[in-house]
Predict the 3D structure of the following.
Amino acid sequence: MIRRTKIVATLGPATDGEGVLEKLILAGANVVRLNFSHGCPADHRRRAEEVRALAKQHRRSVAVLGDLQGPKVRISRFSAGSVTLENGQIFTLDASLPSDGGSIDGVGLDYTSLPDEVAIGDRLLLDDGRIVLEVEQKLGSKIITQVIVGGSLSNNKGINLEGGGLAASALTEKDFADILLAAEIDVDYLAVSFVRSPDDLHRALKALVDAGGKAGIVSKIERAEAVADLDLLDDIIRASDVVMVARGDLGVEIGDAALIGVQKYLIKRSRALQKVVITATQMMESMIDSPLPTRAEVFDVANAVLDGTDAVMLSGETAAGRFPVEAVAAMDRVILGAEKHPESRVSSHRLHENFVAADESVAMGAMYIANHMQGVTAIISLTETGNTPLLMTRIFSDIPVFAFTPNAKTESRVALYRNVIPISYQVADVPADKINESVVSELLRRGLVAERDWVILSKGDYNNVHGGTNTIKIVNVGDRLG
Ligand SMILES: Nc1ncnc2c1ncn2[C@@H]1O[C@H](COP(=O)(O)OP(=O)(O)OP(=O)(O)O)[C@@H](O)[C@H]1O
Ligand SMILES: CC(=O)C(=O)O
Ligand SMILES: [K+]
Ligand SMILES: [Mg+2]
């Protein structure tokens, strides 16, 4: 069985162990996430290099996503690494404490203006809402709080203000430095955190391009302000290549009860606007410490798959958990199970729209044929940029799209798209009248189609031309030589 929905796995100390990265890729990670909130540039460079070497060795297409920290407010570090807070105790957030001087009484802050932005009575949510503090008093650089919900608190955890509204802008100085790193690593995707407007995305893209980088832009939806205004949200989605439902911060800002509605809306709206969508955070959180997910986590992943997400993401489960490989394997298994639920081949997607471009019209026509003609088991798209497979897979179908591309960047980029299977193919090496036969034979050789199947093929008149797709072919696998 080919898995259609993709897995994004965050790298971290837990994936640095001997052989772990290789197992993670073999277990089915399609995209790796470098979280620039943690670790140092050398870690990110090394991990990206290792992933690319392993992907090449095992002939897998794996995309690299760099995730900017953004204006996330964080505590600094504890001298013992972590503390356990008791309900009712006093705990001080102190911007003047040394960065590794935290103790059971208080901890430093990486955002020194926080004391100016909170008021007495505000609730501060730490570690994606696991720890709740209430502001009792402010004394200069100190915020004195009472612990409402305690528990274990470790280094560098995030702080959110309940209801949202901390002032910091979406791109910090550290982010601009990390964009240079992202360009140097040549990431396939760059994720912008706490996006408030299309302008945040334009600024990030400009900085990336100025640094010689070329990547798809991921907008992380995690601010209450971004989802409160649906016109603004549409503008943000249109300015993105990929949308991420960043449930960690978003859930804290808007409350967990509102999250499911927003998640479903974002998945639907992103697909409708021809964009890719990732569902992220706490999908299999219990697997940080347990080799098996809970039933609720299994259903969470499965529901995101049934809603049409392109990818599901693992964060702490793979970056810092005890069972990183098991977490990817569990996701793979659960996704495959959810995908057995037959996907409708009836779609009203874009039925009443006019198309502006030939490649777009070919993509829509190919999907109409594939979904309605008996015996079609595969769609082949010869693609330079990956745009035709993207447009095709915005329509629900259970027929896989094989993206044959000579472009290594496209090959890794489409690894994120639901229902798209990248295949490296040097079309320039094949005589024009042999291309149909050669691509169909490749699928037959890999056991992905059978002799009696029908295949839909899309391509252009000339090789290596952007947006040149203008042809749909209907090919019977058995007759491909004829
Ligand atoms: N590279 C890393 N080094 C050390 N710890 C990490 C690393 N990546 C993740 N972790 C740990 O795993 C937890 C969850 O990972 P995740 O990537 O979701 O971080 P996060 O800080 O919540 O993310 P974000 O800043 O994007 O909201 C982190 O809070 C941290 O404790
Ligand atoms: C991924 C992320 O940043 C979040 O869920 O908040
Ligand atoms: K981040
Ligand atoms: Mg976040």
Summary: The chain is about 35% helix and 25% strand. Residues 10, 12-13, 35, 37-39, 67, 69, 72, 157-158, 248-249, 315-316, 319-320 surround adenosine-5'-triphosphate (ligand 1) (CB under 6 Å).
